[in-house]
Amino acid sequence: MTTIGFIGLGNMGNPMAANLVKAGHTVHGFDLVPENLKTARDNGVVVMANGVAAAKDAEIVITMLPAGKHVLSVYEDIAPKAAKGTLFIDSSTIDVDSARKAHAIAARHGLLSIDAPVSGGTGGAAAGTLTFMAGGSKEAFVKAEPVLKPMAGRIVHCGDAGAGQAAKICNNLILGVSMIGVSEAFVLAEKLGLSHQALFDVASTSSGQCWSLTTYCPVPGPVPTSPANRDYQPGFAAALMLKDLKLAQEAAQQSGAVTPLGAEAAQLYALFNAQGHGGADFSGIIKFLRGDSA
Ligand code: NAD
């Protein structure tokens, strides 16, 4: 079994670390928030005094942090102190540019690294069914795979440094746009006197079929497990959708990709968030489109 450093024990990091402990690994964890450290301790994580201590004796270090600036600052701190050949796995969702810089810091200190953001949310983190999208060398990926397994439903090697983050933001660009499209169709159906169930029965088996409709339906009823049935409790919070759509726009601007629907989706989620709904599930955007969210 492996000694794993885990830095960033928040909503995602804590349940992920708990699954590593359950799989028999020794996890040395650190977070800035004392309450999160208490949860980690209760889950069997060995709580360390700081990030450097969490990384020091670890063969593998996993970070699960809010944004690129946090990842780069933690990497600058811990990389010089980690043993040569240690594998750094960053599972945070961050911009592609910062992800590549993080790989460069690791390489400068003789470390292996992959970017491995996830989809599946806090439910997937608790259940150990996250999808990991990995970017980095084959050698690093092969070393990472067995450690990711207790946290994962699926692990995909997407390519070189930054490819995991690229896959994550492209996927969530599809998700944000498709959720708005499905929501608009339900709002139009309401105006036309078409029932939610009738639209669902047709579109879910027709060319309008997609995950935002069949798994995450934004109106209550047709898919009983979707957040619409529990007053849009997340799930996947609108604030995180906005974060990912902004990352996609940033990447589109830097790379010269034309993404007009992505830009519009980012704008709509920014307005929804500005109305105070950042903590609601992102499928709650349907209320904004109906004009009843303010
Ligand atoms: P979170 O805010 O709950 O957790 C982040 C943790 O990092 C916090 O506990 C914070 O105290 C800690 N932290 C910040 N700087 C630190 C430092 N220097 N040293 C140690 N700890 C530090 O966020 P989360 O929901 O767990 O998300 C983590 C990442 O996963 C984000 O990048 C997010 O976009 C991504 N993500 C989240 C979800 C989700 O549903 N929550 C889904 C997929 C991806």
UniProtKB/TrEMBL annotation:
Q: Where is the 3-hydroxyisobutyrate dehydrogenase-like NAD-binding domain?
A: 162-289
Where does the record place the catalytic residues? K168
Q: Does the keyword NAD apply?
A: yes
State which Enzyme Commission number(s) the record gives.
1.1.1.31
Gene Ontology MF terms in the entry: 3-hydroxyisobutyrate dehydrogenase activity; NAD binding; NADP binding
Provide the 6-phosphogluconate dehydrogenase NADP-binding domain boundaries.
Answer: 3-159
As its record notes, the protein acts as a catalyst of: 3-hydroxy-2-methylpropanoate + NAD(+) = 2-methyl-3-oxopropanoate + NADH + H(+)
Which InterPro entries does the UniProt record give?
3-OH-isobutyrate_DH-rel_CS, 6-PGluconate_DH-like_C_sf, 6PGD_dom2, 6PGDH_NADP-bd, HIBADH, HIBADH-like_NADP-bd, HIBADH-related, NAD(P)-bd_dom_sf
Q: Which residues form a coiled coil?
A: none
What UniProt keywords are attached to this protein's entry? Branched-chain amino acid catabolism, NAD, Oxidoreductase
Q: Report the pathway entry.
A: Amino-acid degradation; L-valine degradation
**GO annotation terms (biological process):** L-valine catabolic process
| Top-level taxon of origin | Bacteria
What the record says about family reads: Belongs to the HIBADH-related family.
* Entries under NCBIfam families matching the protein: HIBADH
Name of this chain's protein: 3-hydroxyisobutyrate dehydrogenase
Which species? Allomesorhizobium camelthorni
